[in-house]
Specification:
By secondary structure, this protein is mainly β. 0% of the residues lie in helices and 46% in strands. It is globular, with a radius of gyration of 13 Å.
């Protein structure tokens, strides 16, 4: 069904910022709840930030106040704005429908290192 394409990752130093983008191959008939996930080597994939079509958001405690999730419906793009990045934020970031653990995209690598 939907295919997600993530972009915007890169190598940054601690304290710097990045903005990730997520587009889909097709438009939704009904916009579902969406989310950003991340996975570090040797660790489980985890939810970082969730977005509901009504505008409500939620964040993992470790990124609260630093990460902001939002969607531009006219561009069919989900964003994750990240500031004050820390080494522990390093990982491959994915977007997907909340609660769905299939149809993963390739993700985008975020590396925070000095």
């Amino acid at each position: 069904q939907e295919q997600f394409v993530e972009s915007g990752g890169g190598l940054v130093q601690p304290g710097e910022s990045l903005r990730l983008s997520c587009t889909t191959s097709g438009r939704f008939d009904k916009i579902p709840d969406l989310a950003w996930y991340r996975q570090a080597p040797g660790k489980q994939r985890e939810l970082v930030a969730g977005w509901r079509s009504g505008g409500l958001t939620n964040y993992q405690d470790s990124v609260q106040g630093r990460f902001f999730i939002f969607r531009d419906n006219t561009k069919n793009t989900l964003y994750l704005q990240m500031r004050d990045l820390k080494p522990e934020d390093t990982g491959v970031y994915y977007c997907n429908i909340q609660g769905r653990w299939t149809n993963w995209g390739r993700g985008t690598q975020v590396t925070v290192s000095s």
